[in-house]
Amino acid sequence: MGGRWDGPPVAWSGRNGAERLVRTAFVLIVALAVASAACGSSTSHSTSTGSPAVSGSASAGGNGKLDPAVSMPKGFPSDFPVYPGARLTSAGEVTLNGQMTWGVQWETLQSVDSVQGFYSRTLDEGDWTITFNGSSKGAFSVIFSRRSNSKIAGILTVESESNVTHIQLALGVPG
Predict the structure, then answer these.
(1) What is the per-residue pLDDT across 41-80, written as a single tens digit (0 to 9) for each?
(2) Which of 90, 101, 128, 175 has the fewest CB within 10 Å, making it most exposed?
(3) Degrees (nearest 5) of the Cα angle 77, 49, 124?
(4) Under 8 Å between Cβ of 162 and 170
(5) How far apart are CA 26 and CA 22, in angstroms?
């Protein structure tokens, strides 16, 4: 297993999962747009999210309700470990210079510790390897890559808000 960091984790914050995904996607798109302007290339983007409305969402009063489910996007790596029983609530992708970057979020009512244990194990076995992980104040982050192709890499963060554990993933896959 890779190095361990006990400082603050890299985590998304905001009122709900859709806002976190949109904010993260925006930052990613801006960074990719700046890079593509320097290279003269084009960017494509697609997003699928659950309803951003506050009604019935996990952030509405801390009642521990999951956001609506969305479908897994076509082409998402089928061997990526998904926490058992987690609901996919947001998904999108950005393509630049043939590099596909997925942004997805799952939600579960299980604890951050349970989710951390699952990903600490599954992202450090088989074709996956952890290069960095850290946890602090009830949140967890891990940077990982494929053993067979280190250009396939990502960051996964886990945090709890309003009694719902959010699992956010950014995964880059070369074209």
Answers:
(1) 333 444 444 333 222 333 333 578 999 999 998 889 999 9
(2) 175
(3) 35
(4) no
(5) 6
